[in-house]
From TrEMBL:
Region called Disordered, residue ranges: 1-22
Top-rank taxon, per record: Eukaryota
Domain Cyclin-like residue range list: 86-168
Entry coiled-coil feature ranges: 301-328
Full protein name: Cyclin-like protein
Length: 353
C-alpha cells in the first residue's frame, strides 16, 4: 500500500503562551487586587482582631472598663477613611500638586487600611503622611516644614512619625497604575477611529475624567484593572463611543465586565454624610487603642516597659563589648587602652539599636 506523501512528519508546534502585559508584571497586579468578598473578609478580620486586642487592653488596665464601649465596625471604619480620602483633592489643589500625586495618595490611604485599623491609627494623620509620601514617590517632593506649615494644627512629627509605618504597610511598593492614564490612551485611540464625533469628543473626555476621579472613592482599583475602570468611566460619559472602541479592539465582551464598575462609580463614590462621620469620630475617641493615646496611663506604662527592654538590651551590648575587648588584649587590663574601652561601652549604652 503506498504511503501518502502529503502527510507531514513534523510535530505541530505547541500553542504559544500569551505574553504578560507590563501591568500583569506589577506589584499592584500581584499583591493589591482582590475580590469583593476578599475585601470584606480582610476588613472584617482586621476589625475583629482590633476590637479584641483593644478590649483586652482596657480590661488589663481596669477590669470592666470595656463593657460600655461601643467599638466601630468595619463599615464605620471604611466610612471614616473615605471621608479623609475626599480631603486629599482639596489639599492637592492647595499645594498645586498634579493629578498623579492626588491619585497615588488616595491609593496609599486605602492600601494602608487593608493592613491597619482606624482604632490604632487615625485617618487624619495617615492621610497627611500618605500625601507627603505620594509627593515624594511621584517626583514632586516638598520640604516637611513647608508642608506642615501650610496645614493648620499640624507639626512635622505628625507626619514623620508615621512615614515608615505607612511605607511598611504598603510593602514598600510605591508604584501605582492609575486609571486616568489608561483613560488618556482610550481617548487617543477613539480620535483615530473614522466615526468619532469630532465636535463633542473633548467634552466627553472631561466627563469621563470626572467619573475616573469619582472611582477613587470606591474599591474599584482594588478589584479591577486600570483599563477596565477607564473604559467604565468612558462608557458612563458616552456608551456608544465606548462600544465603538471595544469593537475596534475586538473586545466587545469587555462591555459586560465594566457594568459592575459603572454601578460602583455611580453608587459608591458619594461623599459620606458629614454628620454620620462625626458620630463615628466621636465614638472613635472612646474606643481608640489606649496604647496609641499619648499621655494615657496605658501609653505611659507601655513606653516605660519599652524603655526597660531597650535599657537591658543596651546594657547587654555594652557588657559584650567590654568582654570582647578585654579578652582580645594579650597583656591584660593594665596595658589595655582604658579610655578606648570606656568610649566603646558608653556608645553602646547610648545606642537604641
Amino acid at each position: 500500500m503506498p504511503v501518502p506523501t502529503d502527510v507531514s512528519s513534523e510535530t505541530p508546534e505547541p500553542p504559544r503562551k500569551r505574553q504578560r502585559t507590563l501591568y500583569e508584571a506589577s506589584t499592584q497586579y500581584r499583591n493589591w487586587r482582590f475580590s469583593t468578598a476578599q475585601l470584606s473578609r480582610i476588613r472584617a478580620s482586621l476589625n475583629e482582631a482590633a476590637v479584641a486586642a483593644i478590649r483586652n487592653t482596657f480590661e488589663a488596665d481596669l477590669p470592666g472598663s470595656s463593657s460600655d464601649i461601643s467599638f466601630l465596625n468595619a463599615d464605620e471604619e471604611c466610612l471614616l477613611v473615605k471621608l479623609y480620602a475626599t480631603k486629599i483633592p482639596q489639599l492637592c489643589a492647595h499645594f498645586g500638586f498634579p493629578e498623579e500625586v492626588e491619585a497615588t495618595a488616595i491609593s496609599y490611604l486605602k492600601r494602608f487600611y487593608l493592613k491597619n485599623t482606624v482604632m490604632d491609627w487615625h485617618p487624619k494623620n495617615v492621610m497627611l503622611t500618605a500625601l507627603f509620601l505620594a509627593a515624594k514617590t511621584s517626583n514632586q517632593p516638598i520640604p516637611i516644614d513647608a508642608y506642615t506649615s501650610r496645614i493648620p494644627k499640624t507639626s512635622p512629627s505628625d507626619v514623620l512619625d508615621l512615614e515608615f509605618l505607612v511605607a511598611q504597610s504598603l510593602g514598600f511598593e510605591f508604584t501605582i497604575w492609575h486609571s486616568y492614564r489608561a483613560l488618556w490612551g482610550i481617548w487617543l485611540d477613539i480620535q483615530s477611529l473614522p466615526d468619532h464625533p469630532k465636535d463633542s469628543i473633548a467634552e466627553i473626555y472631561n466627563t469621563a475624567k470626572s467619573h475616573a476621579r469619582a472611582a477613587r472613592l470606591t474599591d474599584a482599583e482594588l478589584i479591577y484593572t486600570p483599563s477596565q475602570i477607564a473604559l467604565a468611566a468612558f462608557s458612563l460619559a458616552s456608551p456608544n463611543l465606548a462600544a465603538l472602541w471595544a469593537h475596534a479592539k475586538s473586545s466587545d465582551s469587555v462591555l459586560q465586565v465594566i457594568e459592575p464598575i459603572k454601578q460602583m462609580i455611580l453608587q459608591d463614590s458619594r461623599t459620606p454624610d458629614v454628620e454620620a462621620v462625626r458620630n463615628v469620630d466621636r465614638r472613635l475617641k472612646l474606643c481608640k487603642n489606649p496604647e496609641k493615646v499619648v499621655g494615657s496611663r496605658v501609653y505611659l506604662a507601655k513606653k516605660a516597659e519599652e524603655e526597660k527592654v531597650a535599657a537591658a538590651k543596651r546594657a547587654k551590648k555594652a557588657e559584650e563589648i567590654r568582654k570582647t575587648m578585654e579578652e582580645n588584649d594579650p597583656f591584660g587590663e593594665h596595658i589595655a587602652d582604658k579610655k578606648k574601652l570606656d568610649d566603646a561601652v558608653n556608645r553602646a549604652l547610648e545606642d537604641d539599636d
